[in-house]
């Protein structure tokens, strides 16, 4: 299978910060700046919500640690980014980040023949986190594997590093500053993100040209990154004003034009969009409404479905409780109202698919969902991707979710027109509905990227079985 991937790949830099280290850092900064404490207190009282100074960064981190909550703030100043990088990068664990980056590696490791990703910043460090099996990067009119291009890329390439600094903290840590002291109530993380290109849905020109020249050879495209779009002052201008089309709408519409141009050349190109967690309700609604008539399927977890459902007047409480009936009904309702034909909802306990295509083979969907659930479970248990046979061997020893199996039975009773399938499937409100339980690893090595892993694996297996 040949697959295009866009848009967001970045570097995750994970740093475990403890209370004593943070307290020491604040004391040192306070000693160097006589008004540092006053500035920090003001930021703690009135949260900036983004990072343009050292005190902004510390205010975000302290607030999360004091409350035991998580947050992600954008770094807007390159000098602050450089300070955070110099201070923390040596003690961090770095890995591939970004939904598309993770999914492209999954596709490559699971046996796709050619995976071509859009890489907003083609740096040597970013390249080092891409799989070297089947990922190919267009560069100066040719395709290169990751390791080849890493060696070939000029030393003066000077591409910015797009780093998401993930600061993990633990319950019970004590932080002291400016005569105050608090204990962290629960473990969580604060993310400081420097990613000016992916926030803009940046399309690499080499990728754009390659995709247009070779889309006729591709079997599918898997897309993500729309949740990184953010509002600015231009977006709030009235319709008809000179700059009203700028901002996130302009960026998203440019992407839609690209997807449509692929479809114009290859009408049967299967496009899957992984939705993601949006910080803005307006952007989420706009993205969903505009993507739905163009793409073949949108994937999301129950939190993202609940957000969309709530914005459309659908009760989200049962969705967040992972009620399979509520999830299937909400997915069908959202598809009906948007023009989307297929939706995939992946939860910890089960996966649900709804489709308006009556000629979709339910057994293909079922096999693909079981394949994805097995790959994700094996990845959770082992903490690494491997070839599919190794992953499926590991998965065969991991039990299916009991909660998921109960929800499968519950949904089966709700479906009026059942089909003869190897698991639960049937027609409900004119949509084909299928559900499979996931497999649950009791002691996961990794939980980051499981949603991306299951979606990418399902996507690949469906392409294989339908070709």
From TrEMBL:
<dbReference type="Pfam" id="PF04587">
    <property type="entry name" value="ADP_PFK_GK"/>
</dbReference>
<keyword id="KW-0460">Magnesium</keyword>
<dbReference type="InterPro" id="IPR007666">
    <property type="entry name" value="ADP_PFK/GK"/>
</dbReference>
<keyword id="KW-0324">Glycolysis</keyword>
<keyword id="KW-0808">Transferase</keyword>
<dbReference type="GO" id="GO:0016773">
    <property type="term" value="F:phosphotransferase activity, alcohol group as acceptor"/>
</dbReference>
<protein>
    <submittedName>
        <fullName>ADP-dependent glucokinase</fullName>
    </submittedName>
</protein>
<keyword id="KW-0418">Kinase</keyword>
<dbReference type="GO" id="GO:0006096">
    <property type="term" value="P:glycolytic process"/>
</dbReference>
<dbReference type="InterPro" id="IPR029056">
    <property type="entry name" value="Ribokinase-like"/>
</dbReference>
<keyword id="KW-0479">Metal-binding</keyword>
<dbReference type="GO" id="GO:0016301">
    <property type="term" value="F:kinase activity"/>
</dbReference>
<keyword id="KW-0963">Cytoplasm</keyword>
<dbReference type="GO" id="GO:0046872">
    <property type="term" value="F:metal ion binding"/>
</dbReference>
């Amino acid at each position: 299978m040949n697959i295009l991937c866009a848009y967001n790949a970045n570097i995750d830099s994970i740093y475990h910060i403890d209370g004593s280290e943070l307290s020491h850092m604040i004391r040192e900064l306070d000693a160097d700046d006589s008004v540092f404490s006053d500035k920090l207190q003001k930021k703690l009282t009135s949260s900036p919500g983004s990072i343009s100074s050292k005190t902004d960064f510390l205010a975000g981190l302290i607030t999360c640690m004091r409350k035991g909550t998580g947050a992600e703030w954008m770094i807007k100043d390159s000098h602050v980014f450089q300070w955070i990088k110099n201070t923390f990068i040596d003690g961090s664990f770095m890995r591939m980040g970004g939904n598309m980056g993770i999914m492209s590696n999954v596709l490559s490791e699971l046996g796709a023949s050619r995976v071509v990703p859009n890489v907003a910043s083609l740096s040597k460090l970013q390249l080092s986190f891409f799989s070297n099996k089947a990922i190919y990067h267009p560069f100066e009119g040719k395709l290169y594997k990751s390791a080849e291009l890493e060696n070939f890329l000029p030393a003066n390439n000077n591409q910015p590093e797009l780093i998401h600094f993930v600061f993990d903290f633990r319950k019970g840590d004590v932080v002291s500053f400016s005569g105050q002291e608090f204990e962290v109530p629960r473990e969580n993380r604060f993310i400081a993100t420097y990613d000016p290109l992916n926030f803009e849905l940046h399309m690499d020109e080499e990728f754009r040209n390659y995709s247009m020249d070779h889309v006729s050879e591709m079997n599918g495209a898997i897309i993500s990154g729309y949740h990184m779009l953010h509002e600015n002052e231009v977006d709030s201008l009235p319709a008809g004003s000179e700059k009203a089309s700028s901002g996130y709408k302009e960026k998203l519409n440019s992407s839609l034009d690209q997807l449509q141009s692929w479809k114009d050349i290859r009408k049967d190109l299967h496009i899957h969009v992984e939705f993601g967690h949006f910080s803005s309700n307006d952007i989420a609604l706009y993205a969903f409404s505009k993507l739905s008539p163009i793409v073949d399927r949108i994937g999301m977890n129950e939190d993202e479905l609940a957000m969309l459902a709530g914005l459309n007047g659908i009760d989200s409480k049962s969705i967040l409780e992972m009620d399979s009936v509520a999830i299937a009904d909400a997915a069908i309702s959202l598809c009906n109202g948007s023009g989307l034909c297929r939706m995939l909802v992946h939860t910890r306990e089960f996966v649900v698919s709804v489709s308006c295509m009556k000629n979709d083979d339910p057994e293909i969907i079922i096999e693909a969902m079981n394949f994805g659930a097995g790959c994700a479970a094996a990845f959770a248990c082992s903490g690494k991707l491997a070839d599919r046979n190794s992953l499926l061997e590991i998965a065969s020893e991991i039990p299916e979710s009991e909660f998921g199996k109960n929800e499968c039975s519950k949904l089966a009773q709700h479906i009026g027109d059942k089909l003869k399938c190897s698991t639960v499937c049937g027609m409900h409100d004119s949509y084909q509905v299928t559900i499979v339980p996931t497999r649950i690893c009791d002691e996961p090595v990794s939980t980051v990227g499981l949603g991306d892993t299951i979606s990418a694996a399902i996507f690949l297996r469906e392409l294989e079985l339908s070709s």
